[in-house]
Specification:
This protein is of the alpha/beta class. The protein contains 20 helices and 25 strands. The strands form six sheets. The protein has an eight-stranded parallel beta barrel with strand order 11-12-15-19-22-23-24-25, surrounded by five helices. The chain has a five-stranded mixed sheet with strand order 3-10-9-5-6.
């Protein structure tokens, strides 16, 4: 029984043991009952571990019950795949290949037998087919015909490597990593918007910057604006309406905001973003705009809106219906009446009929947001930014989401994604995000994954894949448990799909791999042309030793000082983030002391690296150590910017929070708004004033030097 249980877990890709990424590399053994539940959550009924052998046999026999897999992800250099045919069919089948436009290809191929199995009175043979004809990287329809029986599959022919911009072959570039919502300006309504982003593109062009790293821009819960995490969206296919510049919307009239000027100014002046105030004000004005907009259904703008809705099809229909239902019940998906939880029910169909106007309004919001972001793309092209927008694909999405509602079978049931403890987050992280079920995902030919990848790549020159280890494995925690285990995905397939979409969309791929990284994982990413995210605090020998010299950074990386989940430079120097975690009871007294001791050692090693590299500004040489928190070393910001920007990394991303000496966290993982104001921090300098700001000028000069 025990051997069968272990083999079953191995077959399903459920880790029985694993190590964390903390300093001491602790091993964890998952509880058998949690593992049994995980088997069920993946869609394989198992009441008792004693039944493991029987379930394992069923799973192993399943491949012999159909001719082809739903999808084959192959390399352009090795287009081989397996088929299962009954004896007697193996010598007279016909293979046909066509592109998605219906154009049939003439292909040569070789065939050889690899395995046989008897089921009942019929003997089946597994054949390996290798297409020897050159084929461009693309998706193809694949058919096997045996008499009147036709089996179909999708053949994804992937390039050996992801797309890489030609400019990086002879030039290093730099730019900024920003949170769009945090941009302050004298014209926005209290949150950064698409017009701010368009103006930031122009600003970057004027400064010689060629890349803009962005937070995810996806739509969040309509009737709960304070749920502001950009990594917990209700759909990764669509945009957050809060980024709409209302005054630039077609049919906007100045009279709509008459008498609201004082409220807009208040929202503009708040220390942190007032999401409820900003969002509700914008939505109220947008409703008035839409009421006027739909009066002239023959206008060019209205026809454009209808064309957009038709093009988006069922995905937009599902999002708009979900938002309307959510607003109707003012509660999460789990609290809806049972009949409303099924998107295909008669009750939902009736709701759509009686709420057509509200559903159409939610579609209008997406039309407007998309149109304004398209204008940003055009500005990037006009300014000639070499990479332009560097967008972000979240690892998961809210469990209370349109994606999960309209495709619940695609996700692991009653579980959420998270992460075990690591050096940066010693208590681990329970994100509670919906995660794809690897088996239903493949059964759907990876189309749901392809959709979200394409949506994130739109208009982008590069794409950051959040927690890129999820292409291989995700730490899955049952909803009613505190701990979980790793569930493995078909890494070769997932990485191949990413490489193909990168090639088709001419979009570079950057993998965020901070945390628990499997051995050999980074090397496999680099072999497929995936860039890494390099963070100063992680660029240390053996993870905790001396800082690497700039020349020792990997070339194929996007480097930065920190990330949105880490303390800005000045805050980290003083250890204010440690105190924040201690005050929130995320660290006990002993852990707090350990963290402070580690930070003191980090400061000492950082100063030594900066000294050795000779990066201190000439007019601000270092004076004193300040390593015990007595003060902030003169010229430290410029020295650090110089240190990382002169590294071997192909791309450097500066963070304005570091340059302006911000002392608060943008996000503290593992907390929500009841403990910490995550995703609400505004930049202290208006966009219009950045170029003339003394700290910025010095930092920019240091970077460009």
């Amino acid at each position: 029984m025990q051997d069968s249980w272990g083999l079953l877990l191995q077959k399903l890709g459920i880790a029985r043991t694993f190590y964390d990424a903390a300093q001491n590399q602790k091993q964890y053994v998952a509880d058998d009952e949690v593992l049994r539940k995980m088997v069920n959550y993946l869609g394989y009924p198992l009441k008792d571990i004693a039944d493991s052998a029987s379930l394992l046999e069923k799973i192993e026999n399943r491949r012999w019950q159909y001719a082809m897999e739903p999808v084959y992800v192959v390399r352009q250099s090795d287009k081989s795949f397996d088929v299962v045919l009954a004896e007697g069919q193996t010598e007279n089948f016909e293979l046909s290949v066509a592109d998605f436009q219906g154009n049939e290809l003439t292909v040569d191929y070789t065939v050889w037998e690899t395995e046989t199995k008897k089921r009942g009175s019929v003997t089946y043979k597994k054949l390996q087919i290798n297409i020897t004809t050159d084929m461009a990287p693309q998706y193809y329809n694949l058919e096997i015909c045996c008499g009147k029986k036709i089996s179909r599959s999708v053949l994804a022919v992937t390039p050996d490597k992801c797309y890489v911009s030609d400019v990086l072959q002879h030039q290093k570039i730099w730019g900024f990593a920003i949170q769009l919502y945090s941009l302050t300006s004298r014209r926005n309504w209290g949150v950064g918007d698409f017009t701010d982003l368009k103006n930031f593109v122009r600003f970057c062009h004027s400064q010689g910057a060629d890349v803009i790293g962005l937070n995810p821009l996806n739509v969040l819960v309509h009737d709960s604006p304070e749920n502001a995490s950009p990594y917990s969206s209700v759909s990764r296919l669509y945009l957050n309406p809060i980024y709409i510049d209302v005054e630039k919307v077609v049919a906007f009239k100045a009279e709509y905001i008459k008498g609201k000027e004082r409220e807009i100014e208040r929202l503009r002046q708040t220390k942190d973003i007032d999401y409820t105030g900003v969002y509700n004000l914008k939505i109220n004005i947008l409703r008035q705009i839409y009421a006027d907009f739909q009066k002239d259904t023959k206008s060019g703008a209205y026809q454009e809106y209808e064309d957009y809705c038709k093009k988006q099809g069922s995905d937009l229909d599902n999002l708009a219906a979900y938002q309307a239902i959510h607003a109707e019940y003012c509660s999460g998906l789990a609290s809806w009446p049972k009949e409303m939880q099924n998107p295909n029910s008669a009750a939902v169909a009736d709701f759509k009929k009686t709420h057509q106007a509200e559903i159409a309004f939610f579609k209008f919001l997406q039309y407007v947001a998309d149109k304004q972001l398209q204008e940003v793309y055009e500005e990037v092209k006009k300014c000639g930014l070499k990479i332009g927008l560097y967008r972000d694909l979240p690892v998961g999405l809210s469990k209370d989401s349109a994606e999960l509602w309209s495709g619940c079978d695609l996700f692991i049931k009653d579980c959420g994604a998270g992460a075990p403890p690591d050096v940066f987050f010693p208590t681990g992280q329970k994100w509670g995000l919906g995660a794809f079920n690897p088996y239903t995902l493949k059964a759907n030919a990876y189309r749901p994954f392809i959709k979200v990848v394409r949506a994130a790549m739109e208009g982008a020159g590069a794409l950051r894949i959040d927690h890129v280890m999820s292409l291989m494995r995700l730490y899955i925690i049952p909803d009613k448990e505190d701990n979980g285990t790793y569930v493995y995905y078909n890494f070769d397939d997932m990485l191949g799909i990413v490489a193909l979409e990168s090639y088709l969309n001419k979009c570079m791929i950057v993998g965020e791999s901070i945390g628990n990284v499997p051995d050999g994982f980074i090397e496999k990413l680099h072999a497929r042309g995936v860039y890494s995210l390099s963070v100063l605090w992680a660029e240390r020998w053996d993870g905790f030793g001396d800082f690497k010299m700039p020349r020792d950074f990997a070339t194929e990386t996007f480097s930065s000082v920190g990330t949105h989940d880490m303390a800005p430079l000045r805050m980290r120097w003083f250890g204010y983030d440690i105190e924040t975690m201690y005050n929130l009871k995320m660290l006990d007294a002993h852990e707090r002391q350990e963290q402070y001791q580690g930070r003191e050692d980090e400061r000492r090693r950082l100063l030594g690296a900066l000294d050795y590299s000779g990066v201190w500004p000439e007019d601000k040489p270092r004076q004193g150590d300040c390593i015990y928190g007595e003060g902030y070393p003169n010229g430290l910001t410029e020295a650090v910017e110089t240190y990382v920007s002169t590294s071997a990394s192909d791309v450097y991303l500066a963070q304005l929070e570091d340059i302006f000496g911000v002392e608060v966290l943008q996000n503290l993982p593992g907390t929500d708004i009841d403990k910490h104001p995550n995703w609400r921090r505004k930049l202290p300098i208006c966009l219009e004033d950045i170029a003339t700001n003394a700290e910025f000028i010095r930092a920019r000069q240091a970077i460009k030097r």
